[in-house]
Amino acid sequence: AICDSAKRQPFSQCLPDTRVDLPADLRQHVAKGSGKIIWLSGESGCAKSMIAHTLADQLREEGSLAATFFFSRKHVKRNDTDTFFLTIAYQLGLLHPRARGAIGKVIAEDTALLSPEKS
């Protein structure tokens, strides 16, 4: 789901003044513009999703977020990659008019791309 999607799990953001250091470190990494992927890993229940949602919300609020996708084992449409690329393309199209035009052109040439099986 997109970071501000209604399908997000409730309370999927860090409470104020909690886990401050890690999101701050992640924001600093993003600010440096390294272009590298951030991979959060850890045991189930260790707050990876909360940290990722908090970071995404903060970046969205300041206009620094291009796109997000949050996988979920609990939701059939988000537990594999079927809609991943379509979701990212949609968000990039909303954000960047030039990307929107290019994405629209590609889809017009091959409407089968809208099928989740091609994503």
TrEMBL record:
Residues 33-113 form the Nephrocystin 3-like N-terminal domain. The keyword Lipid biosynthesis does not apply. Keywords: Repeat. Gene3D superfamilies: P-loop containing nucleotide triphosphate hydrolases. It comes from the Eukaryota. This is Nephrocystin 3-like N-terminal domain-containing protein. It comes from Coniophora puteana (strain RWD-64-598) (Brown rot fungus). The lineage of its organism: Eukaryota, Fungi, Dikarya, Basidiomycota, Agaricomycotina.
